[in-house]
Design brief:
The chain is an alpha/beta fold. It folds into 2 domains: about 140 residues, Rossmann fold (3-Layer(aba) Sandwich); about 120 residues, Rossmann fold (3-Layer(aba) Sandwich), CATH 3.40.50. About 40% of the residues lie in helices and about 20% in strands. It has a 10-stranded mixed beta sheet, sandwiched between helices. The longest helix has 29 residues.
């Protein structure tokens, strides 16, 4: 079974069309229903500036936000009609993470964009997509804000560390893994033993996936580079078009302050990432 009910976040960012096109291709491949969700949020305004803005300006701003939503909806309907997919359009109100998290719980998969620091316009933009990953309870597919992705899920890499979040992500991704041509279970700087990644790093998970009909092989690498950079480098070498990984194996605040694979990947990703927490 593949993901039959997909939610895609649509906004007015430069990367939104590529994200929507990726979602349409997946919906076509899996014969899925695709629902577009636009969140009507208020732009961030410091408190000291709000009192200086008159009601006329605020009303004009509200009309502009509504117009942006209507334009996004028209583009969504036109693009999905051209793609021949079963589609639905929804406009949500509120904070982006909260609105999308509530909606995504009724879907098999949520597709969102990587955060682009040059386009943070609304309150809560800085919380995407990691805030959604942490709160939705559903698998999330993140599309980088740079690049176009003609295929997603043909040649997959699983970032495996033997941890709880990685296991959750792998099993949430099983529908995609089963449909892939190749799957590489990649371990960076493996720790052996039963509490780590096994005496043959990644072999146990590759064998488990093979019993589900997944064409999986185990691989590992010893590297002095940042683990996130190592994964992205190996992904480029292998022509990977989707990375499956768990997120925030440590406390999120710890990773944000001290760094971590999740934080690094969300900032520097070059391929789509399918994840869950």
């Amino acid at each position: 079974m593949v993901f039959k009910d997909i939610l895609v976040h649509v906004d007015n960012s430069k990367s939104s069309p590529a994200r929507l096109n990726a979602a349409i291709r997946l919906a076509q491949t899996w014969d899925s229903k695709l629902t577009g969700a636009y969140v009507l949020s208020q732009p961030y305004l410091p408190a000291y500036t709000e009192v200086q803005i008159g009601p006329d300006i605020l009303e004009a701003q509200a009309k502009e936000l509504k117009r942006n939503a209507e334009e996004a909806g028209s583009a969504f309907r036109k693009t999905t009609d051209q793609g021949g997919v079963n589609a639905e359009w929804r406009v949500l109100e509120g904070m982006t993470v909260e609105a999308l998290a509530i909606q995504s719980r009724y879907f098999d998969l949520a597709i969102v964009g990587q955060g682009d620091p040059d386009e943070y316009l609304f309150i809560g933009d800085r919380e995407m997509p990691d805030g959604l990953i942490m709160t939705s309870g559903r698998p999330v597919l993140i599309i980088p804000f740079v690049g176009t992705f003609e295929t997603i899920g043909k040649n997959i890499m699983v970032a495996w560390d033997g941890g709880q979040q990685a296991s959750r992500a792998v099993h949430d991704a099983l529908p995609v893994l089963k449909a892939a041509n190749t799957v590489t279970v990649m371990v960076v700087n493996p720790k052996g033993g039963r509490q780590g990644t096994g005496d043959l790093p990644g072999a146990d998970m590759a064998a488990h996936l093979s019993r589900h009909g997944v064409n999986a092989e185990a691989d590992h690498v010893i590297s002095d580079l940042d683990p996130g950079d190592t994964l992205l480098s190996r992904a480029a070498d292998k022509g990977i078009d989707l990375l499956v990984m768990g997120t925030y194996g440590h406390a999120r605040w710890t990773e944000l302050i001290l760094g971590g694979v999740t934080n690094h990947m969300l900032k520097h990703m070059t391929v789509p990432v399918l994840t869950s927490h």
